[in-house]
Design goal:
Elements: E1 11-15, E2 18-22, E3 26-32, E4 38-44, H1 60-84, H2 93-102, H3 106-140, H4 142-145, H5 149-171, H6 175-195, H7 202-207, H8 216-245, H9 249-279, H10 287-300, H11 306-324, E5 337-338, H12 339-352, H13 358-368, E6 380-381, H14 383-397, H15 402-406, E7 408-411, E8 414-417, H16 429-439, E9 445-449, H17 455-464, E10 471-476, H18 479-491, E11 497-500, E12 511-516, H19 531-536, H20 550-562, E13 563-572, H21 578-588, E14 593-598, E15 604-610
Parallel strand pairs: 9-10, 9-12, 10-11, 12-13
Antiparallel strand pairs: 1-2, 2-3, 3-4, 5-6, 7-8, 13-15, 14-15
């Protein structure tokens, strides 16, 4: 294989049915679920430049990375099990009680217990047991060990290495762990492939070595070797303490155990620097130092299949993407989770994309069918609800408007279907509906121009139907918009006559009230609209011409022919346009009066023209 030319800082670990890759700014987890589908989760990390300076100091950084890898690795391992092995559909009574009483899931308790147990087991196997075995030998052969304390620490270190080797062999007895070692091989092969400068394809990754200089197995071996030297040096003052203070054997063992635990961070810091130095070069001169680690890796890695390699590639690419692009979003796989974890992740991702964080609250509250105020109370979100929430969340991240994502929205207390064929009804337009309902009398007729989703016409029809009879016609130039409007009329059981027409073209008769919310955005300002409006909502319903007044002029030219005597025209307009529209109608029509109505924000938003 050619020389490595594309070194990377990305590293990883095998997890249950998958691979975790960790870069400087992000961590990605790719796991095969119970159906064999690849599930990808990604989480942002604090970038190196924002970490405390002490965490970047040589030797100290090794301690930081050791602790981070220990706890982060355990979390990833347990998280992968949640993704790969779904929980039972029907939770137990105990699980329900935990959720209701303590707002925690059974999975959280298992995770915490497993983490603590793992640390205790590691201390027992690699610190306590070697110390105990060596003490037993020392008791039986004091003449051999006492004069030469260096042999004591060499024997203790030898026990530690033997236990580590036997532990690896023991894990090979389990099918699930052998599978994990294959994912470990996929992780190494993928990183090697990238460092050799090859495109990350399954074929290229297959050809690469499954041994790597920065492997965790090699790191543990270096830790075990370095610990022999460090514990031996620390043992000199301890021996003097035991001799002069006359400390008994039991207390001495506890002191020795405690000192070794205190020295672990120091050992990890030295070992990290040794591993980093060895990984900087592929020189054959360093091979004797790397060989023990490589030999152990032949046990802890195995040849992966294509599906395993796909997981490793997906995790690596996402970790690298998060390092290269600060705006690359986090991803979460749908499993049972807590609201306090899910909601902040969604909000942060939205804010990074320039999307209102409140949209995350809307998604969660609507899926769970709870008010937004209830989101202040933590709760466990089950997998089905979490899956639905994340599906909507990821679609919203594309920039698609929230109500298009949901497929409907609420306007004036009624539900309206909306998609890219129509504008999303805005809350301020409800004032127009209120004005229209107040102006209509029993037996009146109304025409709604540029009806779009039909929101104005349908809301007025539903409100007036409660106590009076009003004949309503709604028109739009877009047949697609009229399809949505007709569906909304059926949904809300509103009786409306829909007509395809370009404003008044094809409209017959006079009306007591004409309403319209025509396009009023200036053509030159279309590109400056928010991305979700510009890219998703129909330009036909937004672009009002060079000055935004094109349709108002056309309406003013013919309005007098279609408004009955004593009737009214109510128009919604853009900010700063109301006074121009009043002047326009006063000059083009024989209107009796013209008045301006402000919206709740104090903006002159509506014009009422009386005839």
């Amino acid at each position: 294989m050619k020389k490595k030319t594309n070194r990377t800082y990305i590293g990883g670990q095998a997890v249950i049915r998958g691979v975790m890759m960790r870069g400087k700014s992000g961590m990605a987890l790719a796991v095969r679920d119970d159906d064999g589908e690849l599930q990808l989760e990604a989480k942002r990390l604090t970038p190196p430049e924002k970490r405390k300076k002490i965490a970047r100091v040589p030797f100290v950084r090794g301690v930081v990375n050791f602790c981070s890898s220990l706890f982060g690795g355990m979390q990833c391992l347990l998280r992968s099990s949640e993704i790969a092995i779904p929980e039972d559909e029907e939770p137990s009574k105990f699980s329900k009680w935990l959720e209701k009483k303590w707002k925690v899931s059974l999975g959280d308790i298992v995770t915490g217990f497993a983490t603590v147990f793992g640390v205790i087991l590691a201390v027992a196997l690699f610190i306590f047991c070697p110390l105990l075995f060596t003490e037993l030998i020392a008791d039986k052969a004091p003449v051999i060990l006492e004069p030469y304390r260096v042999w004591y620490y060499l024997i203790e270190g030898g026990f530690r290495l033997v236990i580590f080797f036997l532990y690896i062999l023991f894990t090979l007895c389990f099918k699930s762990l052998r599978e994990t070692y294959r994912y470990h091989g996929a992780e190494h092969k993928t990183i090697n492939c990238y460092e050799y400068g090859l495109p990350l394809t399954v074929g290229n990754v297959k050809k690469c070595s499954r041994l790597h200089d920065r492997c965790g197995t090699t790191f543990i071996f270096i830790v075990l070797v370095v610990s022999i030297l460090v514990f031996a040096l620390a043992g000199i003052p301890l021996d003097m303490l035991y001799e002069y203070a006359h400390i008994n054997d039991i207390l001495g063992r506890f002191i020795s155990l405690f000192v070794r635990l205190l020295l672990l961070p120091f050992v990890a810091g030295i070992s990290y620097e040794v591993l980093k130095l060895l990984s900087l070069s592929s020189s054959p001169i360093l091979l004797p130092f790397k060989a023990p680690g490589y030999l152990l890796q032949t046990l802890t890695t195995a040849e992966p299949d294509e599906s395993m390699i796909e997981c490793a590639i997906a995790a690596f690419n996402k970790a690298k993407e998060m390092d290269d692009d600060p705006e690359s979003p986090e991803k979460t796989v749908a499993t049972e989770t807590k609201l306090s974890k899910l909601l902040p992740m969604m909000k942060n991702a939205f804010v990074q994309k320039g999307i209102e964080g409140a949209d995350a609250e809307w998604i969660v509250s609507l899926v769970l069918n709870i008010p937004r105020s209830a989101l202040r109370e933590d709760r466990v979100i089950k997998r089905p609800d979490c899956k639905k929430i994340l599906s909507l969340f990821e679609e919203r991240l594309t920039g698609r408007p929230l109500w298009y994502v949901f497929g409907d929205t609420e306007f004036y207390g009624y539900t309206f279907k909306v998609d890219e064929r129509v504008l999303i009804p805005r809350p301020e337009t409800e004032i127009l509906v209120r004005q229209a309902v107040g102006a209509l009398k029993d037996g009146d007729s109304m025409l709604d121009l540029c009806t779009g989703s039909g929101a104005i016409a349908i809301a007025v029809a539903c409100e007036t139907a409660k106590d009076r009879t009003v004949k309503i016609t709604a028109s739009d130039i877009s047949e697609d918009a009229l399809e949505v409007a007709r569906e909304n009329a059926r949904l809300n059981k509103a009786n409306i006559n829909f007509v395809k027409a370009d404003l008044f073209a094809g409209i017959h008769g006079k009306f007591n009230l004409i309403t319209a919310n025509p396009p009023y955005v200036k053509s030159g300002e279309m590109k400056s609209l928010p991305k979700e409006v510009r890219d998703f909502e129909p330009a036909l319903a937004l672009d009002g011409g060079e000055d935004g007044m094109d349709l108002y002029r056309r309406i003013a030219e013919k309005a007098s022919r279609y408004v009955a005597r004593g009737g009214m025209l109510i128009l919604e307009c853009g900010e700063g346009q109301a006074r121009e529209i009043v002047k326009l109608f006063q000059s083009k029509t024989r209107c009796d009066y013209a008045m301006i109505v402000k919206d709740l924000a104090g903006v002159e938003r509506f014009v009422k023209i009386g005839f």
